[in-house]
Amino acid sequence: MRAAALIILGGLTLAGGTPLSAGDPAEGRKVANMCRTCHGIDGLAQIPIAPNIGGEPEAYLESQLMAFKTGAREHEMMSVVAAGLSAQQISDVAAWYGAHVASARLPDGVSEADAPDACVSCHGADGIALLPEAPNLAGEVNIYIDTQLKAFRTGKRKHDIMSSIAAEMTDEEIRAVADWYAAVELEITGPE
């Protein structure tokens, strides 16, 4: 019975489930050296086409990396990188970036009441995720957000909630959301 349970849990891991052991941020710091060119060692993106990942919910980071590893999500660079990582390394690097703290500040003269209605219940008015399954959007480059929303809209990227929300959005609405979160000032601080 125990062997069957381990096989099932292992299969869930490969399918994008939770690995068997918790992530170790110190080990994840070592793995993050391969991430630093695009995402920065602290998770503040170094290039506009890469998202900020420092302070993202650990569960979100882990699920996205497992999706790249299994092919459930595809990206020319991330699919290759994730394919070379073990489930434990994915847990570790998710723990490293998840151990950072992301904070955000709205631009002067802007009110939380003006935030995109369809986004705030998951991503917050300031772009700091309110749910562990949702990414932070604060300070992302507007082109990145625009591209991801259009990928959800066309079905290139799939998600139970985001696909249906993006399907209803016009190009102008997508750009307004992207511009809103891009204008938010993001700060990422490292683990103590």
Query: How many strands?
Result: 2
Instruction: State mean pLDDT (0 to 100 scale).
Output: 90
Strand content: 5-15%
**Which bin fits the share of residues in helices?**
40-55%
What does this structure look like?
By secondary structure, the chain is mostly helical. It contains 10 helices and 2 strands. It has helices at residues 2-14, 25-31, 36-39, 58-70, 78-83, 87-98, 117-123, 142-154, 162-167, 171-182, and strands at 101-105, 185-189. The chain has a two-stranded antiparallel ribbon. Helix 2 packs across helix 6 (87-98), helix 4 (58-70) packs antiparallel against helix 6 (87-98) and helix 8 packs antiparallel against helix 10 (171-182). It is globular. The N and C termini lie far apart (42 Å). Residues 1-20 have low confidence and may be disordered.
Write the layout of secondary structure elements.
Layout: H1 2-14, H2 25-31, H3 36-39, H4 58-70, H5 78-83, H6 87-98, E1 101-105, H7 117-123, H8 142-154, H9 162-167, H10 171-182, E2 185-189
Helix pairs in contact: 2-6, 4-6, 8-10
Summarize the structure.
The chain has 192 residues and is mostly helical. The chain has ten helices and two strands, in the order ααααααβααααβ. The model is unreliable at 1-20 (pLDDT under 50).
Keywords:
192 residues; two-stranded antiparallel ribbon; 48% helix; 2 strands; single chain; mainly alpha
